[in-house]
TrEMBL record:
GO cellular component, one term: membrane
Protein name: Hemicentin-1
Pfam families linked to this entry: C2-set_2 (PF08205), Ig_3 (PF13927)
Organism, as annotated: Papilio xuthus (Asian swallowtail butterfly)
Keywords, alphabetical: Disulfide bond, Membrane, Transmembrane, Transmembrane helix
Amino acid sequence: MLGIQCKGLRQGCWSVRAESLDAVNLSAVAGGDATLPCDTRSPQPPDALLLVVWYKDDVPIYSYDSREKSPSAHWADDSLGGRARWHAAPHAALRIRDVLPTDRALYRCRVDFKVSPTRNYKFILHVIELPEKPKIFDAREKEVVGVAGPYIEDTSLKLTCVVSGGKPMPRVRWWRDDKVIATLAAAEDGSRLSLLELKIPKLKREYFEAVYTCTADNTALVPPLRTNVQIQLYLRPLFVEILAREQPLSVGQEAELACRAVGARPPAIITWWLDDKPIAVTEPQKNSDDFNETVSFLRWTPRMEHDGRVLTCRASHVKLEHTTIETTMSLNLHYVPIVVLQLGSKLNPNDIEEGDDVYFECVVRANPPAYKVVWEHNGQVMTHNQRAGVIAGSAHLALQGVSREQAGRYVCTASNVEGDGRSPPVNLLVIYKPVCKNTEVSIVGAAVNEAAKVTCEVDAFPPPKNFQWTLNNTIGTVELEAGKFTVDGAGRSVLSYTPSGDTDYGSLACRATNLAGQQIEPCRYTLLPAVKPDPPSNCSSLNLTDDSAELRCVAGYDGGLQTTYVVEAWETEALVANVSATAPVWKLHGLGSGKALTLVFYANNARGRSEITTLRVHTLSRLALQTEANTRSNRVDSSWALGIVAGIVGTLIAVTIIALVAKRKHHRPLQYEAPTQTAKAYKGSIQPVNHSPIQPDDKNPDVVPLGKDFNCTRDEERPPEPPPYGAVVSPPVGSSKSTHSLHDVRSNTPHTPNTPASDIQSIGTLAEDRRSVTSGTLSRRREVVTTRTPLLANARESCV
């Protein structure tokens, strides 16, 4: 509303008010622009505009003279300060820039034409002063900029919007989400401040990050002034949970557990506990994009003692007290079966004898339950065999009539999806009487007035502490004194026996006694005079290369003493190698390539050295090996055409051979008589021991080894070709007058090892030989086989 102050005569004031009644109201914002229109069009078109004059409260302030064609056509009062300008087009008007509150007045536009009468247009300009931007203050009268709070959930809120200035007085309003929630109407009370409060009695979760806006406006010419504020709250966590896993927790295997907390602002602090003891977490917790959810990951390796305990996940607020919530999970751990093997409760583990019934109990603790139980005895898997007295179940094992072979370590193994669990072994001790470890009758050689060691080893549990030695000879059975033998804790007794004459030889027997009783069948030994060993026989080369050879012979009689077996390799008169071993098996190295060697084999013990056995070999040539390799390579590279030709040739040869065989079937085979050879002639063919083993090369130095059943010595002489079949004859029986003659005869006799079935017979023969020595005579039988090999046409071989 335009306020006009009247001075002077009362009649003049009324004239001004009356003059403003037909004026047009215009509004402008202080600091903006104001446009005062004025129609300069003549009602008579030929007429021309002469002059335009603007009056402010009847005081001229601006004029425009159309008759002037220069800038001087415009005139403005100094009160306008150059802020006004007349514009003839597009619409005639006076435009005022940077409107001031003093520009509020009654304006009149006078238009003069050349012919038409003068026109007047009246305007009342209202200048609007905008208020200042709203400011927001909290309950403590502290200005809030952008964010209010944070406030604790369920508390109250009070915000005050303060607007200063404005003419006319502004309208103040609170908004939320484009909805007006509070309004303060404009009031002209003479105050320049407008205050509007926003009160929320209880801040719920829905007020979190809510945006409130305070606006102030007193005109429609410009948008309302506004100030925004966001409400921040401290929110307690709503719930917490341990996320489910697809796989169960297993003992000894690292697992990842996740705990999720929802609803806390700021995000909750998650901690892990195991029975009120905190668990360290190495990985930082993660928040969702809107920070509404928080997840903590726990990498943890459970142990067996954790099974059945309680795992807790707690979510707490960093600012709020008494807002911690938690969730728990009882640990149901999967683990490899824990197995304990126990002997039957009614059994005494130290008093189990052969023939007793024994049972075991396998106690299994497993999650998930075991699906299989396996029993083992000394590392071997046992199976259910009721006929054999083995009754194996999932939890028990019964042994009916247990034997000594069933003593040892027993283990039960239980299996589930986590793995196999083995029990600690349980050692089953079975008490049984002693038995000989060597069931065969051993031959012991002993010289007169020389001590011989005879070892008696028995298998028994517990080990025997008492032994009894007896000697059975032509006089009778005599028990030997305890001072002649020793007993150790390993079930072994060593007899030191010194024969003083022929009557001290015979058969020794050893019996042991333990807790189970006395040994039923004694260990037996045949005591014979010690002699030189027999030479090795049936010698052959197993693997012959260009520089080495593997050799093996059959051992002869060792003379009753410890024997060493020797092989010598000779090239002409030079010794190439000399190797000894406790068994007739050797491996020679460094022999040289492509050499013809003579191998000399003999045995040696304390009584002397045996006769020799010879064998000729040729080491392979490196050039031959290379040639053979090249030949194989050329065969691989040959064309298929050569294969076809070879096939045709082979077919022709096969047909020819079949025809020759068919032709020979019409002829009767020749009959040959086998010549005989006396024992004396055979002995003459054996080389003397003191003679050099190196002999001149035969016409054919290649050696073709005979079968393992032959023991051959090549004769130096080459008689006429014998028939291709051999014959066996019995040479004359020789005799001996002393033990020395027995030694001589045995040294010239190759020894053929006895089979197990003939052990008793051999022992009996040795006993007869001993009795023959005692009586001054010894009978020996020698069989000589004369044969001929196709490759050695001029050589004759004698096999004994």
